[in-house]
Design goal:
The protein is α+β, with helices and mostly antiparallel strands. It contains eight helices and seven strands. It has a five-stranded antiparallel β-sheet with strand order 6-5-4-1-7. A two-stranded antiparallel sheet has the order 2-3. The chain is elongated. 28% of the residues are buried.
């Protein structure tokens, strides 16, 4: 029975820790919403960004962050946030609408080429649940798996042993399901090679050298494809096929 109490104690501690983290995140999110309603858009954005820095994000969070930046006239940051929200929830009509409005305010009218069907399908599968929710569910499944396994070896009471076996098989199934979902989301993140120009005006060079010939000029909010990097320079391709090198701090990966 001592082993059972110890296992239950570990479960309770893990559960309380997750609840406290979730509550702290919810408080910051609610503060951001209140600041947004009060017209303090930069302060609202700071609250949302603070949540993201903790490694917690969702489509709703990025959407609200995009709205705050849009209202604060930070167009590039707004587009970047909407694009990240669209990655997590590609079929959301509100995200699509606001993203379209933001792109209409950009200086450069460059239409993005739609992604391949396979990429769209992968994003849809990965967006069924927020990344953070999937990760927490995966961790809990592992806790249940090891907890039930430990109970099977340490507890010899028939009733508890039977329940532990059932829990073991259920947790095994859950671990496989959540791992597959995490793998899909990770594949989506690693395959991502798009970025948003965040500098107001960018002069792309023909090579990664400040003294190289100018290739073209683009402005904030333009989506580019990243293909290579040399030192502090990244190689970008526009949707119309133009290629150039820009300083890496002038864009941010979606």
């Amino acid at each position: 029975m001592k082993h059972v109490r110890w296992i239950l104690f570990v479960y309770v501690i893990a559960l309380l820790h997750c609840v406290m983290l979730a509550q702290s995140t919810d408080d910051a999110f609610n503060r951001g919403n209140e600041l947004y309603r009060a017209g303090k858009y930069q302060d609202a954005a700071n609250e949302y960004e603070g949540i993201i820095k903790q490694g917690k994000f969702s489509a709703e969070l990025y959407f609200n962050l995009g709205n705050a930046y849009y209202r604060d006239k930070q167009l590039a940051r707004a587009i970047l946030s909407y694009e990240r929200a669209a990655q997590l929830r590609p079929n959301d009509l509100d995200i699509k609408h606001n993203l379209k409005l933001a792109y209409l305010k950009t200086v450069d009218r460059i239409e993005a080429v739609p992604d391949m069907f396979l990429i769209q399908w992968m994003r849809t599968v990965g967006s069924l649940m927020p990344h953070e929710t999937v990760r927490i569910a995966f961790v809990f499944s592992w806790i249940l798996l090891f907890g039930s396994l430990a109970t099977m070896y340490l507890v010899m009471i028939p009733g508890i042993l039977r329940a532990a076996r059932i829990l073991f098989f259920i947790s095994c199934t859950l671990v496989v399901l959540w791992a597959a979902m995490l793998g899909t989301q990770s594949l989506r993140d690693t395959a991502q090679d798009k970025a948003i120009i965040i500098a107001q005006t960018v002069t792309a060079k023909s090579s990664p050298d400040v003294n190289a010939v100018d290739a073209f000029v683009i402005h904030e909010g333009v989506k580019v494809k990243l293909t290579d990097a040399v030192g502090e320079w990244v190689k970008v391709i526009l949707v119309d096929g133009k290629i150039g090198w820009i300083p890496s701090e002038q864009c941010e990966r979606i």
